[in-house]
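Subject: Sanity check before I submit

Could someone independently write out the structure tokens for this chain? I want to compare against mine line by line before I put it in a report. The sequence has 259 residues.
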Amino acid sequence: MIDFEQKQQYDMADLVKIVAALRNPDGGCPWDLKQTHHSIRQNMIEETYEVVEAIDLNDPELLREELGDVLLQVVFHSQMEKEAGRFDFDAVCDEICKKLIYRHPHVFGDKTAATAETALENWEAMKNREKGRDTAADRLDSVPASLPALMRAAKTQKRAAAYGFRPENTQQTLDRLEACVKELRNEPQNRADAVGEMLFAAVSAARALDTEPEEALCTATKRFAERVKSCEALAAQDGKLLEQLDTEALASYWNSEKH
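---
Independent answer below. Compare away.
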């Protein structure tokens, strides 16, 4: 058993000590000791999405809890790197502090930014200079391949737009989307490619309409699920199961929920 001081209120330093204790070969937790960056990779993704859900639910208590879970992931990964002799949590904090100062020249330097848009431009300019991203290839290659597909498409399009690869207006993006749908109606030989082009065109249209495609799809998916659940509830009131309904009956329940 590892001796650890019990407190009414813990802080960041305590969290670092607790994680180090969990990873201590002499008395630590067998599960924690077994983990690697790759074995808990999915945990970071799941915890991040749970933070997003807490934000969407506007639940501050849940948000506090989920932010703690994300923070644990950061400290855990940092502890593993400390054990490997490469860096520790203090180094992580040092780097993000320096990054924030460097990328906010309008706050900590001699530049100005009267609007949020100008501040973002300053951030991007400093980021590209810091990373040595001088070409379109540099900027496109730096888009994380692990991003959800819609987010990756939107970020790639946004970066390419800085080099002139963008539609002239919203109508062009909608025309392109319609053309992709028409191609699918013609039963192309490679349906996967055609579907991919349609989805990519939809992302472009969403951006032209100043809409975040990932959020828009999440909202539409949630709305669809709610409609299906409502149909199920209505069918249950009539003593029926959704899977027992024919197409006409199912459409009737669906349309009753349309408004």
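---
OP: Matches mine. For the report I'm noting this point. The radius of gyration is 25 Å.
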